[in-house]
Amino acid sequence: MLLPTWPLALTAAAVVPPLVSAIPHGSSPPTLGRGIAADDFVSVDGYKLKDRQGTVYLTGLNYWSCMNLAAEGHVGGNYSRFITELDQMAAHGVNHLRIMASSEGAPTWQPFRMYPALQEAPGAYNEAVFVGLDRCLAEMGKRGMRATMTLANEWQWSGGFGQYVSWATNNSQIPYPSSWNLTAAPQRSEPGTGWGNYTVEGVDADSYGNFTAYANRFYTIPKAQEWYHAHIEKILNRVNTVNGRVYKEDATVMTWQLANEPQPAVVPTESLGPYSLELPAAPEDAIIPWVKNTSTFIKSLAPSQLVNVGFEGKQGRWYYQAVHNFSSVDYGTTHCWVQNWGVYDMLNSSSTNLEAAKSFATAFVANSSEWSKEIGKPVFLEEFGMARNNWENEGKEYAYLSSAGTSNKDAYFTTIIGAVMDDFKSGNGTYIGSCPWAYGGLYRPETQHANAFGEVWAGDPPHEAPGWYDLYDTDEAMNIVHRQQQDIAGFLST
Ligand SMILES: *[C@@H]1O[C@H](CO)[C@@H](O)[C@H](O)[C@H]1NC(C)=O
Ligand SMILES: *[C@@H]1O[C@H](CO)[C@@H](O)[C@H](O)[C@H]1NC(C)=O
Ligand SMILES: *[C@@H]1O[C@H](CO)[C@@H](O)[C@H](O)[C@H]1NC(C)=O
Ligand SMILES: *[C@@H]1O[C@H](CO)[C@@H](O)[C@H](O)[C@H]1NC(C)=O
Ligand SMILES: *[C@@H]1O[C@H](CO)[C@@H](O)[C@H](O)[C@H]1NC(C)=O
Ligand SMILES: *[C@@H]1O[C@H](CO)[C@@H](O)[C@H](O)[C@H]1NC(C)=O
Ligand SMILES: *[C@@H]1O[C@H](CO)[C@@H](O)[C@H](O)[C@H]1NC(C)=O
Ligand SMILES: *[C@@H]1O[C@H](CO)[C@@H](O)[C@H](O)[C@H]1NC(C)=O
Ligand SMILES: *[C@@H]1O[C@H](CO)[C@@H](O)[C@H](O)[C@H]1NC(C)=O
Ligand SMILES: *[C@@H]1O[C@H](CO)[C@@H](O)[C@H](O)[C@H]1NC(C)=O
Which residue in 40, 135, 309, 443 has a CA-CA distance of 20 to 30 Å to 274? Predict the structure, then answer.
């Protein structure tokens, strides 16, 4: 068995865990922080977070595949990779991981998603994947890492809203938008090693608008909401099989997140602002009562932990404030995606292109900090990323080879993380940390091998090109993340 031994019934007295003996693989973990006592909950204090030791700054990383990687091999897990990567992140000062605490399956195999699913059918759970999630929390806690636990997903890569709608409508066909098809041409001669291509709208994919219209029916279908609430209760009341902690009473779980990037349900008549990202005010939007209802529900079950929405903030000030201005939502979130939003081109090596991305990110952080202050809440930059210098891959066999350099990504990370740190340190800011997308650790596209479930577990989720936004263990971005943590630790100690 790979289950580490761990005393049950942890108390505040057991703050310093027996780290070395509890880690079954490799040598003792590097530069670990303190373990997290079950009752050392993080709370919001003005525009800052705090725990028993004082102010908490979140040096975060996205690690959405955690529960699947940490599971046993017969369900596609890779426990030694999980432990190695957790140690790597801890050695870079990471104290927060945003992970999935949900994924949904279907009666017939569906493309583009995490497999096996945690919830294979309404109310039916894959216990081996659940044990993977237990292991994530237990091992994170030992390394002083807290979690954002994402409870659903707007997008198809974990099943998500679309799967709940399909379940509730006689397993109707989900209209998938353009997504990465790992088994499409081109393939390499060795089966399961790549590369794949995107499906094409109008050929083998639907439009994003059609997909979100389908997925957003989730907000208002009573049966879908009933199942979603049952999932929330199931997760919050889970007793961790590794350390005996109940999830809702474990301070390792800092935050329950309603969903990854829930989208407005009102179809906008126009897009506003210089980047055409902002949407007009729509007080009738179903997302707003849904946030209120779900966040109130979670707070009633888990009053010691925090709740957030998982919103990107791209829709502008009105929507940002409308979804966050509830007493049951503890802090705001933002996601900043310069390439996806048309501000940056990963194939363009010009400095103007990079400067446009940096200016956008700086303004986005400043603007969202102000929006948060106006509603009296802190804000967490919990997703952002940039591709490698992929113009260097042009003409090669794959556009996302890890051999491309990262000079643009490094400059961009320094700027956007710097903007968050400056805001945090300014005395009048609202940012509480940063969380890049996404840790790929040991993964590389060049050596990828789909497992028995068709998964490669890149930092990019299954509906996107593997290697696009990955942070690899040897990337300079990880040193930028680490310097952030050291800088803030120095700031907080003075
Ligand atoms: C686990 O991950 C490591 C590192 O990526 C890889 O070398 C190994 O083949 C993986 N094992 C399995 C069983 O997939
Ligand atoms: C549900 O779907 C099945 C298979 O597609 C179909 O035969 C059946 O008529 C559908 N039922 C309803 C109520 O739509
Ligand atoms: C992916 O590509 C393969 C090979 O072309 C094809 O058989 C399959 O239908 C595609 N999957 C989807 C979901 O489009
Ligand atoms: C990937 O798909 C795009 C869009 O259909 C197509 O233009 C391109 O040639 C494909 N790439 C390969 C290598 O087949
Ligand atoms: C989107 O849905 C509409 C209405 O069902 C349909 O006419 C259209 O073809 C769909 N778009 C795509 C790209 O499939
Ligand atoms: C949330 O909505 C459901 C109906 O979908 C209702 O039964 C429940 O009371 C609401 N909960 C809260 C906390 O508003
Ligand atoms: C936020 O809610 C408070 C009261 O709950 C209200 O006074 C304030 O106007 C709201 N702000 C926004 C921007 O909606
Ligand atoms: C690269 O980006 C710059 C600045 O946005 C633009 O002026 C130039 O035309 C772009 N070059 C190409 C080849 O797209
Ligand atoms: C920031 O806000 C200003 C003023 O509303 C606006 O002009 C600008 O486009 C915004 N920038 C970003 C990146 O959101
Ligand atoms: C916040 O502080 C910075 C300097 O630390 C200052 O430049 C900025 O104007 C202040 N903003 C507000 C809204 O007070």
Answer: 309
